[in-house]
Design goal:
This protein is α+β, with helices and mostly antiparallel strands. It has two helices and five strands; from the N terminus they run E-E-H-E-H-E-E. Helices cover 19% and strands 26% of the residues. Strand 1 and strand 2 form a beta hairpin.
Length: 80
């Protein structure tokens, strides 16, 4: 017998906070309560948690180019 989990979409939102906010994510089922608290929706309907996390994190978690690699020598898409 196969067990299946219900498919749940994810949302990314801007946190409203007195000392600045950031982006966060949650399952779509939790969004109505967060919207009522005044947070701003960035994107809904994301198909998995990893996709939502990458959008919420932005470039903060991207790998840095290794020194000496071809990509590290490129600045703005052209050689440095």
């Amino acid at each position: 017998m196969r067990f299946t989990q219900p498919v749940e979409s994810w949302v990314v939102y801007q946190v409203v906070a007195p000392r600045g906010g950031g982006r966060a994510m949650c399952p779509a089922s939790e969004w109505p309560a967060l919207e009522a608290a005044g947070h701003t929706l960035i994107q809904a309907g994301l198909v998995n948690e990893g996709q939502a996390e990458r959008l919420a994190r932005g470039t903060a978690g991207d790998a840095k180019p290794r020194a000496g690699s071809r990509d590290a020598a490129l600045v703005g898409g052209r050689p440095a």
